[in-house]
Amino acid sequence: MKEFHIRDEFLPYSRPLLNEEEEEEVLKVLKSGWVAKGPRTLELEKKFAEYLGAKYALALNSCTAALHLSLLSAGIGKGDEVITTTMTFSSTVNTIVHTGAVPVLVDVDPETFLIDPEKIEEKINKHTKAIVPVHYAGMACDMESIKALSNEHKLFISEDTAHGLCTKYKGKLIGSESQAASFSFYATKNICTGEGGMLVTNSKDIYEKAKVLSCHGMSANAWNRYEKGGSWKYDIEAPGYKYNMFDIQAALGIKQLEKLQFMQERRKHIADIYAEAFQEEEAVILPHIPQNTETSWHLYVLQIKEELLKINRDEFIEQLNSLNVGTSVHFIPVHLMSYYRENYGYKWGDFKVAEDYYKRIISIPLYPSMSDEDAEYVVKAIKYILQKYRN
Ligand SMILES: *Cc1c(COP(=O)(O)O)cnc(C)c1O
Q1: Is 56 helix (H, G, I), strand (E, B) or coil?
Q2: Which residues pair with 244 in a beta bridge?
Q3: What is the mean pLDDT of residues 339-361?
Q4: Which of 44, 223, 241, 385 is deepest in the core (most CB within 10 A)?
Q5: Is the pTM of this model over 0.85?
């Protein structure tokens, strides 16, 4: 077997594409004297809503905040149940707990690994108030079936679109027609403001309630109370949160949004390199793109066929790490987390499809700031490990 030349530099799992344009924009904000929520945040909201073709966008300090406010604004709380997938990041489920409602987890579809509408239907009862579909990895959930359930049972739909910026479902951008869609601008996501998120909605009611809750529960437009002509008077309509975005983040977001198309093309190009390289590999399964989806390529998730290898997934990750390739796993199913096991009685064996998938997955580097050579190196490293440890 040929010797493998390990690259000198570690290739991180992810790294945002930030350069002089973002630097300049941030400096402008610093020099303007207005660094809190202000004109740049409003500009980003406007541009984001326009980009999606949705009515309202509310810039927040995270997607987690957006998920939480979407549910609160829909009136969800104690005594209610909210259905979501176990194959997600914990914050999708934590935010349901924060409202006082009970999170009801369900398994994923064995082909798409997205929330399974049939499993949702089995869990609907008189306490069910909402569904939180997660457009995992940038693949669109079966929204037609989910909307049918929502119409039949009068359920609110709060979409977790943390991976879904640029995802299209039946030709339309995810979020454009949503009751609520929560986007993330965390460092690893398709656009990055450091930390940040956006709640998008087509409901004036949801928008206005969320806006008040995002800033202490203060009556509208309190952010400019220190400007000339701004009023020092405000009312507290509810014991709100401090969830708003601020202008330094928004400056990053405005520039990132301008680059979005370019960044998406890079993601797709790298995904194409991987697809081409691995299509003949027996021991890995490539991401499945569901019908009706144009993916955002947020993640590139490979499934390892352990039965064909001498090493398991965890060892595969260690091998890649030793060859200077960073990876991640999306996700450890939420029902396996100690809080959810101890408080809701979940255990191994509850969601077989998600568990089996979890044991086989590796997310490999896929981001616009990596080069074609980086992607080709990842391919070489994976092929080397596959060959070395083949049964
Ligand atoms: C990243 C992520 C979140 C949370 O995003 P933050 O902006 O970090 O709060 C929620 N759901 C999913 C599926 C995610 O991947």
Answers
A1: strand
A2: 60
A3: 98
A4: 44
A5: yes
Query: Of 37, 129, 189, 211, which is the active-site residue?
Result: 189
Say what the pLDDT of residue 230 is: 75
Across the beta sheet with 81-85, the strand order is: 56-60, 197-201, 180-184, 156-160, 128-132, 81-85, 102-106
Q: Residues near ligand 1 with C-beta < 6 Å?
A: 62-64, 88-89, 91-92, 134, 160, 162-163, 184, 186, 197
The confidence score (pLDDT) of residue 34 equals 93
Instruction: Give the whole-number percent of the chain exceeding pLDDT 70.
Output: 98
Specify whether 359 is catalytic: no
Tokens of 134: 């997660």
Instruction: Report CA dihedral (205, 211, 217, 219) to the nearest 10 degrees.
Output: -80
3-state secondary structure of 293: strand
Distance 59 CA to ligand 1 centre (A): 15
Separation of CA 317 and ligand 1 centre (Å) = 23
Instruction: Count CA within 13 A, CB hemisphere, residue 26.
Output: 13
pLDDT digits (tens, 9 = 90+) for 62-84: 999 999 999 999 999 999 999 99
Residue 2 scores a pLDDT above 80: no
CA of 216 to the centre of ligand 1 (A): 22
Mean of per-residue pLDDT scores for the chain: 96
What's the rounded Cα separation, in Å, for the pair 18 and 38?
A: 22
What φ, ψ does residue 358 adopt, rounded to 5°?
Answer: -50, -40
388 within 8 A of 1, measured Cβ to Cβ: yes
